[in-house]
Amino acid sequence: MTDLFTISLNNVRFRAYHGLYPEERQKGNDFVVNMQIVFIPVSGTILSLEDTIDYAVLFEIINSTMQQPVDLLETLVQTIAHNVSKKFPQLKRIDISVEKLNPPIDKFSGSATVKYSKDF
Known about the structure:
single chain; alpha+beta; GTP Cyclohydrolase I, domain 2; 4 strands; about 30% helix
């Protein structure tokens, strides 16, 4: 049986400029990102950072991707997942969600979230 580890980044907040509408690109919006990854460690026993996936690097991937505006949250979650899988070939699964806290919809109170999962 293979050892599997899970790392989660929870409720990571950003101010970013994603969206279809010009006002979203100008004013920006608040976003919350959640990510869970499952991976097989490089070696049997994890004794150093090189044996695992550095969650600071995961954050940097999310952060740099969040700084590049896109029209759709679907594009955003797929891009983050792709960038993580490129960096960490030991990845077996990723689950990621991006929540837009104040979508520009008339008379709408709440948030909108897109979730994406992929097995490798």
